[in-house]
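Question: I have long wanted to understand how a fold can be written as tokens. Here is the record:
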Amino acid sequence: MEREALLAALRERALLEGDFVLRSGRRSRYYLDKYRFETQPDLLRAIGARLAAELAEAEPEATLIAGPELGAVALAAATSLASGLPFLIVRKGAKGYGTAKQIEGVFEAGERACLVEDVVTSGGAALAAVEALREAALECATVLCVVDREEGGREALAERGVSLRPVFRATELLEMGKVQQTRMVERKADGW
């Protein structure tokens, strides 16, 4: 799927307008519902391919992909399938039974992981996952995300030595809506 078509599909299927409280606690007039794009095979496949291409460019030394539970596990799996690299699941905390692991999957200390995220706002969830990977003796210096809301996440990650590489920025999604509205007004004026 071409980049513009993917952007349009994300906007159409996952961008909600209203009054929302974000994970960061901030209020927003829009919300990008990750489950509306992560649960659709056509979008998930296209996003996985885009993330794999970004991974190859941004983090060619990576031997692993990592995705925080629950939201980015599907993205990590799709990126893994598109890239051929294995993936890890980063739990919010070590489970209290079985192996009691916070990082699920097969890895060796010193390997380089690239974290995949859905939407980054303040960067808090991504930072927590990066820290968990680092505590497990993995290297992690890059976060790939589907959408950067451009609300401080890039800067927060940079302070911890992590670069953020978004496939899309929130301004692109929002600007596309303005362009579409302008075209509709022009069509109505032309008698459509």
About this structure: Residues 170-189 form the longest helix (20 residues). Residues 149 and 171 are 8 Å apart (CA to CA). The helical segments are 3-14, 34-38, 41-58, 73-83, 124-135, 153-159, 170-189.
